[in-house]
Structure formats: structure tokens, C-alpha cells
Amino acid sequence: MKLKELPIEVEPLAGAMPAFRASVPATGLRELCAQARARKARLVALWGSDETRRGAGYALHLGLALPSGLLWVSVPLARKDPRYPGIADIYPAANRMQRACADLLGVRPDEGADPRKWLRHGAWPGNVFPLRKDFDSGARPAHEPDRYPFVAVAGEGVHEIPVGPVHAGTIEPGHFRFSVVGEKILRLEERLGYTHKGIEKRFESMTLEEGAKLAGRVSGDSTVAYAWAYAMAVEGATGAEPPRRALALRGILLELERIANHLGDLGYLGNDVALSFGFFQFWRLKEELLRTNARLFGHRYLMDAVVPGGVARDLERAEAEGLVQVLEAMRREVATLQSIYDEHAGAQDRFIMTGQVLPELAERMGLNGFAGRASGVKHDLRVDYPIPPYQQLDPLLISHTRGDVSARVSMRFAEVFESMRLIEALVQEVPPGEIRAPIAKARSGACGIGWIEGWRGEVLIALEAEGDRIHRLHPHDPSWQSWPLLEHAVHGNIVPDFPLINKSFNLSYSGQDL
Amino acid sequence: MYQILKQIAKTGIVTERAPEPDDALRVAAQRLGEIILKHFGRALAIRHVDAGSCNGCELEIHAMNSPFYNPEQLGIKFVASPRHADLLLVTGPVSRNMETALRRTWEATPDPKLVVAIGDCGCTGGIFGESYASCGRVSNVIPVDVAVPGCPPTPAAILQGILTAIEPGKR
Asked: Please, are residues B4 and B122 in contact by the beta-carbon 8 Å criterion?
């Protein structure tokens, strides 16, 4: 079939989300991306795969978001020296993804692209590619010096502040190099990849059933979003249909995850502007929610609650009513706290016009999720592609245009209230029936897409199955798109505001490092 | 200000009783003398190191600092540098990209020091195991005194692990 938005032949993919697959020769890649960009298609992900055991060479893959759905473009590449024309000038977010793909698979863009490594530090040499099928998963390559070429900023009075990988607070590891004059930040350069633990290679040793648990641990704070995206991809690849009751329960779980994360971050945002009252209040509320999660679903963060085919645990009528009561009490408390934050001159002084990302830049760099919406990028998968259980609920698309810490704070408050409304609506009409459908074997070469609006932004799982095993799976975190914007958001701000700006995004290291 | 005070008064004190130490969590026989522990046991400075976790354990360490658990009432606080720390709280399988940083953090922590490994990954390598990118459990890289299983372990379990590390061992 032909796609509405682009002159390209596509194959529709089975699954819950509207998705299409197309093959494009390397020579046509840039033209396709330029056309897609002109039609405002967003780059969701870029990854590579080794097809040498399927009688081909390598392949580059792109996920593009179009109004009619997700377009999965595959570009077949040669077995010897697999190269393709880079697209980072068309889609700037592709830069780090291209570099990661080169590190893991030896699939490189042509001359002119950024040649620096990204996920590879010193743990394996530059001529070894862990995601190649002939890479022995038992191998432990010798360490070599990292020697990463940071960009140096010169000039009178400029000095560098290196921070990390071990940070001062309880956060994930990464390296930030600030070039500053006095207190003012001239430039921030991020170096990530410290938590790279070989997740994609690990998936390839797993069955479709085993993979669910790993998917839920790509980024622990988004475990429901990943588990749902994984389940959706497996269901697409195997033709399984999760029961409607399971879909309603998944919706409840995903919104609970959204509320819990926003509450925690709102607490830390108070803490970072010396309003420790906010930290204690929000973390008290979050703890109450986590305990409710544990009581109803058996896990404080809802890990392993979503499984391929449905959900692992049912919600009784009385339990559902109890949940609504907990949320109603919490809604009143959050409203009180919001008025305290709003009227606190000290907090507002730190929030307003700090760490600003203007809409034009956000759109160009592909910022998505609540941070994107805080900068006027009006996309939300729950609204753009309303599939069950969101179909009947009419989720509200909340957005701002100022793109500063204050906008991201108010997005979080608004999304907490909206998620509470969605859960209450879902609880009213949980359809009767089973909570889990059986999963059949996938036919050889079957593929599936999982695409979920997690609390941070859109989580993508692209799966190629081989019987009941995983041939290739790419989990994509929205942090890939957001991290480069943090470098822009801090320009001209003072160093002490960095923790505040960082927390207002709260990006995943593990989800991007894989 | 009135609203803040009203909210504080309305909330009251939510802190719960701290858990008892559990000898089953001990990995190594106590390496610190009883006399040292008597002085240093209840004024403990902790440095957390994420050596490659999925960030699930971090969520529970944050939650442990919530008013429900309130470790500061026990004299336990988190510090910004390993040079100020008595105890390292280490999460994750140790990624090979973090191996050197973890070792250096351990070396920067003054003796005598304690290490508590957090979570299934910290205890065994967990679902990520050992690979080209992961060294597996924490004790493959630095000596560990107490290991707390769970995916992630609850705040009470983490606090229990810390309290076990600073109690003289029964073995």
C-alpha cells in the first residue's frame, strides 16, 4: 500500500498501534528523511541490525512518527564495510544514535558525520562489535584507555568543571563537563554510556516470554511503559489479542506510574530550591501511592505487572474502589501543595525563566513527552493515536510554550490531575472477562512495534522475532532526544541552577546507555 | 507561610520504627572492631554509587529518605563525596564502563569502611548477569560486607542492610 504522507510503498504491521514497514535503498535514505522532515515527521529512533545469518548484510532502521502511524524504515547495507549516508543534519537527534550504532555494530555513516564514539568507553576496542552475531557473548575484551575528545572552550577567564560519573546525589552515573565564566555556563558537554550493560545483546539470548522481565528493567522508573511496549510488540509479532479487561488494567498501571514519578520529582524540585517542606510532603504522598501499588498489584513500582498477552494480576471491584478513594484524598493534598508552590516567591523566582527550551528548538531536536509539551511540542501518543483503553477517555493534551523549569513544573501538576481522572474513568468501566491471552510462536521473521506514552515521553520497542526467540530488539527511551536539549537548556544559566534544570527533565541514563 | 505551617501540623509525624539488623544479610565476617562500631555506628555517612543499575534501586533509596523511614533520626546521612563517607551503598550490576570509577570511589573512601550492595543485581548480577559490558555482582569488583536482595529491595530492607553493616556481627 501507499502511505498518505510519503511517496513510498509500505507494508502495514499487525499490532495495537498503527505502524508500517518499508525498505529503502541507502541511496534513497536522505531524500526520504528530507521529505519526512518537511512533512513534520518526527524521528523516534535509529538502530542497526546484523542480518548476516539471514543471508544478507547489515541493516539500518529508523522509526518515524507520522500522523497515520509509525513508519519503520529498513535500509539494507553491505556485509563488508556497512555504510550509509548520515542523517544528523536533517534530524539532529540522530547524531548520538548513529554513533551508538557504529560502536555496537560497526554500521557507520559516510564521511562528514560526527566520528566520535558514544556508548563505547574503554570496555571493548574499536574493531570489536558486540551486537554482531559472530561476537561471542562469553568474550571479555581487555580494557583500553578511553581518550574521549571533549570539546575545549578557550578564552579569557574560561575554566572547566568536570562532574561525574559518580555524582553528589543519589542519581545515575554520567559525566558532565561545564565550561564556565564565573558562575555562568558557557557550554555543557555530556558524556553518557556509563551504565551500558549490554541489554540489547542480552535480549538476543532470550525467548519472547523471558524478554518481558528484561524490558521492564531497561529503565526502572518507566517499567510499566517498557513492559507494555514490549507486550505490544510481542502481541503484534505473534498475532495475540490481549483481552479488553487487560488493556483497561494496563491503562491504570501506566497512569499510576506517571503519577508516582511526577510526585517524586515535584518533591525534589522543591528540595532543589531550598523548599525541603515540598520534598517531605511529596515523598509522603508518593510513599502512600507506592504502598497502594504493592497492596493492589504486588509491587511498589508495578514491575512485571504487564506481561505479553495481558496483565499478571486482576483488580477486584472493592480494590478498585479503594484505589479511587486513595486518589481522591491525594488529589486534595496535591492541590494544596500546588497552591503553596505557586505562591512561594522564593521557589517561583528560581523556577521562572530558568533552563528555557524554546518551541522551535524543541521541535527541531525532537523533544517529546511532558518536557516537549512544556515547550509547545503538542504530541502525546495517547491523544495522537487513541487506541484502547484511551479511545473512549478523551485524554487531555496539556501544553505550554515557555519551556522553562516553571512550565515543566506546572506540566507535572496538570498531568498528575489528568492521570487521576483517567484512572477514575478506567476503574468505572473495567470490562469483564479474562486478563491474559495465550501467546503463540511467532513465524520466522515476524516483527512487532510497541509504542507507549510513558511518563517521560514515548517509549518504543522494535522487535524482530525468530520462532519464540528474539532476533533483534531495540528499546528506545525518550531520553535519547532529551539529553542533547539539556545541553542547550543550561546555556547562560548559573552552575547552581544546573541540578534544578536537570531535575525538571529527570532523564534516564540507563534507558539511553542500554 | 500559614498554609505551609497548617500542612505541616495536619501531616504530623509519619516516621515508622526502624527495622532490626538481620545477620542473614551479612556476606563477610565483621571486619571492623566492636569498639570502632560503638563510636561510629550511629553517626554514619553514606555515599551512594550507582555502578550501572536500571535506576529501580535508586527509587527505593530516595524513598528511604522520605519521612516514613527518616534515616537521619538514626544519625545516618548521605554525603556528597566518598572522602566524607564511612559506608558505600552500591547499586546495579557493575557495568564495565563503571568498573574503574567504582574502584576509585572505594579507594577514595577512608578506612575503616563498609560496603553494602543493594538489589538482586548488586548481589548476583541479576538479570543482566556478566557479559562484555557487565562485571556482574558488586563483590566481583570491591569487597562487600552486606548484600541486600530484592528487585528493588524495599526502603525498610535497605535500611535494615545498613543497620546490619554497622552492628557488630554475631559470627
From this structure: no
A194 near B CB under 8 A: yes
Which DSSP category does A262 fall into?
A: H
Taking the CA atoms of A117, A122, A126 and A128 in sequence, report the sign of the dihedral they define: negative
Owning domain of residue A41: 11-109
Average pLDDT over residues A302-318: 95
Tally the domains of chain B.
1
- Indicate whether B60 belongs to any domain: yes
Would you say residue A290 has pLDDT above 80?
A: yes
- Residue A220 and residue B56: Cβ atoms within 8 Å? yes
Q: How far, in whole angstroms, is CA B138 from its chain's centroid?
A: 12
CATH number of the structural domain spanning residue A410:
1.10.645.10
Kindly report the nearest CA distance between residue B19 and chain A, in angstroms. Answer: 17
Give residues with Cβ within 8 angstroms of A197, minimum separation 6: A513, A514, B52, B92, B93, B95, B128, B131, B133, B134
Q: Considering its fold, how many domains does chain A have in total?
A: 3
Kindly list the residues from chain B whose CB atom is less than 8 angstroms away from the CB atom of residue A130.
132-133
**pLDDT of A33-60, one tens digit each?**
999 999 999 999 999 999 999 999 999 9
Decide the pairing of beta strands A306-307 and A310-311.
antiparallel
Q: What count of residues does chain B have?
A: 171
A492 inside 8 A of chain B by CB = no
Q: Dihedral of the CA atoms B75, B78, B82, B84 (nearest 10)?
A: -40
How does the average pLDDT of chain A come out, rounded?
95
The answer as to whether B55 is a domain residue is yes
Confidence bin at A470 (pLDDT 50/70/90): very high
Cβ proximity of A70 and A449 under 8 Å: yes
> By the 8 A CB rule, do B116 and B146 touch?
yes
Chain B residue numbers touching A193 (CB-CB < 8 A)? 97
**Which grid cell sits at A41?**
515527521
- How far is the C-alpha of A77 from the C-alpha of B71, rounded, in Å? 56
Matching residue, cell 555494530? A105
Model confidence at B32: pLDDT above 60: no
Give the domain CATH number at B76. 3.40.50.12280
The reply to whether A180 and A207 lie within a common domain is no
The predicted complex's ipTM stands at: 0.94
Among residues A169, A191, A213, the one where a domain terminates is: A191
Same domain, A319 and A248: yes
Please report, as a single letter, which amino acid is at residue A166.
V
B171 domain residue, yes or no: no
Cα–Cα nearest to B142, from B89, B67, B97: B89
pLDDT digits (tens, 9 = 90+) for B72-109: 888 889 999 999 999 999 999 999 999 999 999 999 99
Residue A257 reports pLDDT greater than 60: yes
Cβ distance of B7 and A337 shorter than 8 Å: yes
pLDDT at B171: 43
Q: B111, exposed or middle or buried, with CB in 10 Å at 0-12, 13-18, 19+?
A: exposed
Question: Bigger pLDDT: A157 or B38?
Answer: A157
Distance CA A1, CA A69 (A): 14
The DSSP result for A14-67, as a single string, is: PSSS-EEEEE--GGGHHHHHHHHHHTT-EEEEEEEEE-GGGTS-EEEEEEEEET
